[in-house]
Write a structure and sequence with these properties.
It is a single chain. This protein has one helix spanning 2-42. With 44 residues, it is mainly alpha-helical. The longest helix has 41 residues, at 2-42. The chain contains 1 helix and no strands. This is Entericidin EcnA/B family protein.
Length: 44
């Protein structure tokens, strides 16, 4: 029973970390796209 609990906790933790990295990466992509769009509008 203890092994199953530890295994479940490890899997849940791994998914949480992977999710955070994905959201962080998406945020950086949106920020970059926003900057490029702003520069294009301002003629830079």
């Amino acid at each position: 029973m203890v092994r199953k609990t530890i295994a479940l906790a490890l899997v849940a933790g791994s998914l949480l970390v992977a999710g955070c990295n994905t959201v962080s990466g998406a945020g950086k992509d949106l920020q970059s796209a926003s900057k490029e769009t702003k520069d294009a509008i301002n003629g830079k």
